[in-house]
Design brief:
Shape: globular
Keywords: Plasmid
Number of domains: 2
Helix content: 40-55%
Number of strands: 10
Radius of gyration: 20 Å
Strand content: 15-25%
Protein name: DNA primase TraC
Number of helices: 9
InterPro entries: Antirestriction_ArdC, ArdC_N, MPTase-PolyVal
GO molecular function: single-stranded DNA binding
């Protein structure tokens, strides 16, 4: 499969999911997906990352799988399982570094590392027979009070300036601060409590904050005047929140402006199949940055 076919196939699956969302119901674009928990590989004991998270979520949702565990044919075989006859795989991507020789401006031979896009095919646990794994129910791990306490600690450990004032949530680059409505102004929704919704929105704003000039340095100036750049940054923030919510087993908040965002994302995705790949990579970097601040704070303490 060519690079362009990989980009198109994965993007088309994500587009189909976004198009299925009821825009009149203020449904979070990835809210029904992040409830599954992060896609996990039981052989490597690690979570998938970047666009693979979104793609595996979409596949799990569309095919009705109950498990968030995914592995290749051979990985399941090593665990003693067997892919059922007729089952279809789901593609995932990864980048493999390839060293190539080059000549620099001084005429000296040099080596360059070039990232090469590769594809693997994985199967969900529900497609496997002859194997039983322990239940992976994320919300059973801790009760709501504990989950919220962990989310609150995570947000505080970032060191971000967070002001609870007003009725809108936003990150202001000029003051490098996040403004949030007070927690009591949030309401319960179908998928989350009011408190969960508060932290879901704060995760969104912290993802914006991670792109500040002194941090990951994404270009956040003049976004309101550049519709495509604004849509891209909003997708990064929404994916960042979607990647963070399952880590604390909390639901994702459905904002009233999601319908507007989804329409703009769909337009760009159809024109540029790499759009969601780039946004997912940026969101993944943002989450990794925020997680890195947790260890920094622990060492400081």
């Amino acid at each position: 499969m060519s690079k362009s076919e990989i980009y198109n196939d994965i993007t088309n699956a994500i587009v189909a999911h976004l198009e299925s969302i009821n825009l009149d119901d203020y449904e979070a674009p990835f809210g029904s997906l992040c409830e599954f928990g992060l896609p996990h590989n039981p052989t490597t004991e690690s979570n998938y990352s970047g666009v693979n998270i979104v793609n595996l979520w979409v596949s799990q949702f569309s095919k009705g799988y109950s498990s968030a565990r995914w592995a290749t044919f051979n990985q399941w075989k090593k665990l003693g399982g067997k892919v059922r006859k007729g089952e279809k795989s789901t593609p995932i991507i990864f980048y493999k570094t390839r060293l190539i020789k080059d000549t620099n401006e001084q005429g000296e031979e040099d080596e360059k590392s070039i990232p090469m896009l590769k594809m693997h095919r994985v199967f969900n646990l529900d497609q496997i027979e002859g194997i039983e794994l322990e239940s992976q129910s994320a919300k059973e791990l801790t009760n709501l009070v504990d989950r919220i306490a962990l989310a609150d600690e995570f947000c505080k450990n970032t060191g971000a300036k967070i002001i609870e004032n007003g009725r809108k949530a936003f990150y202001q680059p000029s003051t490098d601060s996040i403004t949030m409505p007070a927690p009591e102004l949030f309401n319960d929704t179908k998928t989350a409590t009011a408190t969960e919704n508060f932290y879901s929105v704060l995760f969104h704003e912290l993802t914006h904050w991670s792109g500040g000039k002194s941090r990951l340095n994404r270009d956040l100036k003049g976004l309101k005047q550049n519709k495509s750049a604004y849509a891209f940054e909003e997708l990064i923030a929404e994916l960042g929140a979607a990647f963070l919510c399952p880590k604390f087993n909390i639901g994702q908040f459905a904002r009233k402006d999601h319908a507007q965002y989804i329409a703009s994302w769909l337009k760009v995705m159809k024109d540029d199949p790499k759009f969601v790949f780039k946004a997912s990579a940026a969101a993944n970097n943002a989450v990794a940055y925020l997680e890195g601040l947790q260890s920094d704070m622990s060492e400081a303490a």
